[in-house]
Design goal:
The complex is a heterotrimer of chains A (about 425), B (about 280) and C (about 190). Chain A has helices spanning about 15-20, 25-35, 50-70, 80-85, 90-120, 130-150, 155-170, 175-185, 190-220, 240-265, 295-305, 310-325, 330-335, 345-365, 370-400, 410-415, 420-425, and strands spanning about 40, 235-240. Chain A is mainly α. Chain A has two domains: about 40-290, Cytochrome Bc1 Complex, Chain C, CATH 1.20.810; about 300-335 and about 345-400, no CATH class. In chain A, helix 11 crosses helix 15 (about 370-400). The two termini of chain A are about 35 Å apart. Chain B has a domain at about 35-80 and about 155-250: Cytochrome c-like domain (Cytochrome Bc1 Complex, Chain D, domain 2, Orthogonal Bundle). Chain B contains nine helices and four strands, in the order ααααββαααββαα. Chain B has helices spanning about 1-30, 35-40, 60-75, 95-105, 140-145, 165-170, 180-185, 225-240, 245-275, and strands at about 110-115, 120-125, 195, 205. Chain C has about 190 residues and is of the alpha+beta class. Chain C has helices at about 15-20, 30-50, 55-60, 95-100; strands at about 65-70, 75-80, 85-90, 125-130, 150-155, 160-165, 170, 185, 190-194. Chain C contains four helices and nine strands, in the order αααβββαββββββ. Chain C is elongated. Chain C has two domains: about 25-55; about 60-195, Rieske [2Fe-2S] iron-sulphur domain (Rieske Iron-sulfur Protein, 3-layer Sandwich). In chain C, a hairpin with a 2-residue loop joins strand 8 (about 185) and strand 9. The chains are: A mainly alpha (about 425), B mainly alpha (about 280), C alpha+beta (about 190). The interface of B and C includes residues 266 and 277 of B. Chain C: Belongs to the Rieske iron-sulfur protein family. Chain C: It is a single-pass membrane protein. Chain C: Component of the ubiquinol-cytochrome c reductase complex (complex III or cytochrome b-c1 complex), which is a respiratory chain that generates an electrochemical potential coupled to ATP synthesis. Chain C: Its cofactor is [2Fe-2S] cluster.
Chain lengths: ~425, ~280, ~190
């Protein structure tokens, strides 16, 4: 749309022309995800995950609205109402399993989407605002996912609420008051459950709003691509529709296959057995862990075991929030003008280490806190911070990138064995 | 400037982690964690291969009905089944009349209110009732069971790790405490009133062995009621109580996957078709 | 977000400059097939979303009410409930029965005899839902001392529908008589509704 060769919306039927004059909504869609949005022609499958995240949010909102018709946000009956959904409500088991596993699918897709952004430098100028809004969406998602997990009012729900609101008690002086204010009591109970339900219902719509801004901001510079090279001309792009709608359709099929396999054949794989025990404020489960998508951050929290100037608990909470908030500064920490890690061998190597580091953190977050695991967690956490705050800025300055292709088209033609126009010109 | 702050913050976190790491390593060396009796003697259940397993898994109604008989004659004396209703029994092959009779003859009656005096009373169960709890409340349950609370069984197979196999393993796992355990961990001797069971998380369970002799339940279908058979059957029954829609779920799943495979294949074809002239 | 392209002369389609003229091939059927499958899938997802609003299994299960009518004297009525709706059980006096039978069917908006609305041999037991057929209010007349309306049966205060001693609509906006649920006497004094 921002490129001069973008196709213009030209309604043919009189009704559509009339609508276009009064409310150019079809034009907006045409320019956003239709033929009016020119997209680099060389996007790989990692570029499917933005659309998949949007689909996952839509499915969550739809199944969530329907579940809210049966769920009772009252500590006395919440657990029972969920069981009633599972047993008596028509297709209730499907709706609940779809919603519970939908959260995992959403987070999974978004993690891949973020990893894509990190690898191909999609956070760099001119797309900083796209990235910042993305981090905001990620924070909103985490809050929504956490509050949703509290709603069934099982043992993990209750103790998750207890532990996560406990983060705030690490704040000096006012922490405990904030925790009590958040919960509306001294421990999670009816007041907390009700406000979590209210916010859990609200935040997805806020998220949807920020997603619109995210897409808007994306359409100003247009999509990044695996080479990271700017679009030079019309030969570098194809219209979003039908090229990427077709490709996204295939992505949606694969996504739905994985999703359906989870819902129908392993619906409790990613859950925890303790959440099928009703909340009991007098007994903590033997092994308390968050959902899988929070495990790396939980590992960072657990790794800070030494008091140094401030208490270990506060270090842990600061580091855990810091590990996400530092993403806001990424566009300015990485000063390398080259976007794609394909042309940055050193950065690429460190990024692969980071991938395994985060997977290790995930393992440690879910594992028992014995000496071996704590040591692994501490080393992995140290790398996480070192990667973003020390290594990344240093590498950006010292690294010698590989030569970039002159254009997207050149890179594509080279891949297909043809000679690039530049080389031809030289010859 | 951003870079300088970034280095400082990064060094702070890494530094504190280094201090913490030093503490962890030194304490691990100075007082290494001793192995506990649970770590050494706890056993994991083995797979009992129920018909409900797998992609095409279905409940074996005859087995589930036998398991229901075990629940009725053995477990129901102490364990509630509060999320399951008598009417649900129709799903495992009981006729409407049988469900009515089972509800009507259930030993524990449904609490209600006397319509004339308003006092607490009980009445016979009807199919729409959920299974009544054997104890009026948690305190009564604890008082009758040496201060241990018999948990509700409706969701038991989902509320424990590997729950289906766990129920069977636990019911057949009672045995005398191994002499080696007491020799190695003198403090871990099974206390009076508890029972050694290596499948229970902390090895000592308050529930006395519920299945004690072959033929304890006289199966209506004539199956030989060995302890192992009864434990398998009750596991199957509790798999059904925890996940009554499992059969429908698997059937819907197969249909959905077949549909989605065709859809995905068509989408792939459409994708190739649309892009046929564009190198990318 | 739309940026008007004013570099090109009006009427010039920028797409035509580079793209080859699209020739419709038979392979395009696969695009149509994929889109059709997506449509079928979307419908399949919508079905459970609609079905979930139907009464759940526990609601459907609680659909019978057992009543003891031995304590209702002639001329009296009780209110009970059936499927969460009010249920009127009325023991008609001989005078009320005569009054109901005296009305010619041709005068009625919803012609039904008292005999059709009661069980044979139990004509004095009038069992109806206490839901006005107009817009669902609970008519008066079952409780002691309530307004029975101009026809001595039930009277709905919301919009003025009046029912007679056989609970048939006689005056006002309601279209039909008060509904008689399915019921049976299990013995002389016990009624099983539903």
């Amino acid at each position: 749309m921002s490129f001069p060769w973008a196709k213009q919306y030209e309604p043919k039927q009189p009704l559509m022309r009339w609508l276009d004059e009064k409310l150019p909504l079809p034009r907006l869609v045409y320019n956003a995800v239709g033929a009016g949005y020119p997209v680099p022609r060389n996007l790989n499958y990692f570029w499917n995950f933005g659309v998949l995240a949007g689909l996952a949010l839509t499915l969550q909102i739809v199944t969530g609205i329907v579940l809210a018709m049966h769920y009772a946000a009252n500590a006395g009956v919440a657990f029972e109402s969920v069981e009633q959904i599972m047993r008596d409500v028509n297709a209730g088991w499907f709706l609940r399993y779809a919603h519970a596993n939908g959260a995992s699918m959403f987070l999974l897709v978004v993690y891949i989407h973020i990893a894509r952004g990190l690898y191909y430098g999609s956070y760099k100028a001119p797309r900083e605002m796209v990235w910042l809004l993305g981090v905001v969406i990620f924070l909103l998602m985490m809050a929504t996912a956490f509050m949703g997990y509290v709603l069934p009012w099982g043992q993990m729900s209750f103790w998750g609420a207890q532990v996560i609101t406990g983060f705030f008690s690490a704040i000096p002086l006012v922490g405990e008051s904030i925790r009590i204010w958040l919960l509306g009591g001294y421990a999670p109970d009816n007041a907390a459950l009700n406000r979590f339900f209210s916010l859990h219902y609200l935040l997805p719509f806020v998220t949807a709003g920020v997603i619109i801004l995210h897409i808007w901001a994306l359409h100003i510079p247009g999509s990044n691509n695996p080479t990271g090279v700017d679009v030079k001309g019309e030969q570098d792009t194809v219209p979003f529709h039908p090229y990427y709608t077709a490709k996204d359709g295939f992505g949606v099929g694969v996504f739905m296959l994985v999703f359906a396999a989870l819902i129908f054949f392993s619906p409790n794989l990613l859950g925890h057995p303790d959440n099928y025990i009703e909340a009991n404020p007098l007994s903590t489960p033997a092994h308390i862990v968050p959902e899988w998508y929070f495990l790396p951050f939980y590992a960072i929290l657990k790794s800070f075991t030494a008091d140094f100037i401030i208490p270990a608990k506060l270090w842990g909470v600061l580091a855990m929030f810091g590990s996400i908030l530092l993403l806001f500064f990424l566009p300015w920490l990485d000063s390398s003008p080259v976007r794609s890690a394909n042309y940055r061998p050193k950065y690429r190597a460190f990024l692969i280490v980071l991938l395994f580091d985060v997977l290790l953190l995930g393992y440690v977050g879910g594992a028992e806190a014995n000496a071996r695991n704590v040591i692994l967690g501490q080393i992995a956490s140290a790398y996480y911070f070192a990667h973003f705050l020390i290594i990344l800025p240093m590498v950006a300055r010292s690294e010698r990138p590989r030569p970039l292709p002159n254009s997207i088209t050149e890179a594509v033609l080279e891949k297909h064995g043809g000679t690039s126009p530049a080389k031809t010109a030289l010859a | 400037m951003v870079r300088l702050i970034s280095y400082l913050v990064g060094l702070a976190f890494v530094g504190v982690l280094a201090i913490a790491l030093f503490g962890t390593v030194s304490s691990a060396i100075s007082n290494p964690a001793a192995e506990t009796a649970e770590e050494e003697f706890h056993l994991h259940p083995h797979d009992i291969g129920l018909s409900s397993n797998g992609f095409f898994g279905r409940f074996d109604n005859r087995q589930v009905q036998r398991g229901f008989q075990v629940y009725k004659e053995v477990c129901a004396a102490c364990h509630s089944l509060k999320y399951v209703a008598f009417r649900d029994l129709a799903e495992i092959g009981y006729s409407e009349a049988e469900v009515k009779a089972i509800a009507n003859q259930w030993v524990i009656e449904q609490p209600t209110i006397n319509p004339e005096t308003g006092e607490a009373a009980t009445r016979k169960n009807v199919p729409s009732d959920r299974f009544p709890s054997p104890f009026p409340n948690e305190i009564a349950a604890r008082a009758a069971n040496n201060n241990a609370l018999p948990p509700d069984l409706s969701l038991m197979t989902k509320a424990r790790h590997d729950g289906v196999n766990y129920v069977h393993a636990l019911l057949t796992g009672y045995r005398p405490q191994p002499a080696a355990l007491v020799r190695e961990f003198p403090g871990a001797k099974t206390p009076a009133g508890l029972h050694y069971n290596p499948y229970f998380a902390n090895l000592n369970i308050a529930m006395p062995p519920p299945l004690t002799s072959n033929g304890q339940v006289a199966y209506a279908d004539g199956t030989n009621a060995t302890i192992d058979q009864m434990a398998r059957d009750v596991s199957a029954f509790l798999t059904w109580t925890a996940e009554p829609k499992l059969g429908a779920r698997h059937a819907a799943g197969i249909a959905t996957l077949v549909f989605l495979l065709i859809f995905t294949f068509l989408c792939w074809g459409a994708y190739q078709n649309v892009w046929r002239d564009v190198k990318h | 977000m739309a940026i008007v392209n004013d570099q090109l002369p009006p009427g010039e389609d920028p797409a035509l400059l580079t793209e080859e003229v699209h020739d419709p091939r038979r392979r395009d059927f696969i695009n149509i097939a994929a889109v059709s499958f997506a449509g079928v899938g979307a419908v399949a997802i919508v079905l459970p979303l609609i079905n979930q609003m139907n009464p759940s299994a526990d609601v459907l299960a609680q659909s019978t009410t057992e009543l003891d009518v031995s304590k209702i004297a002639p001329g009296q009525a009780i209110k009970s409930s059936f499927r969460k709706q009010p249920l009127f059980v009325r023991n008609l006096t001989p005078a009320e029965i005569a009054e109901a039978n005296a009305v010619p069917l041709s005068e009625l908006r919803d012609p039904q005899t008292l005999a059709e609305r009661t069980k044979a041999g139990k004509e004095n037991w009038l069992i109806t839902l206490g839901v006005c057929t107009h817009l669902g209010c609970v008519p008066l007349g079952a409780g002691e001392g309530e307004n029975k309306g101009p026809f001595g049966g039930y009277f709905c205060p919301c919009h003025g529908s009046a029912y007679d001693t056989a609970a048939r609509i006689r005056q006002g906006p309601a279209p039909t008589n008060l509904q008689v649920p399915e019921y049976a006497f299990t013995n002389d004094t016990t009624v099983l509704v539903g």
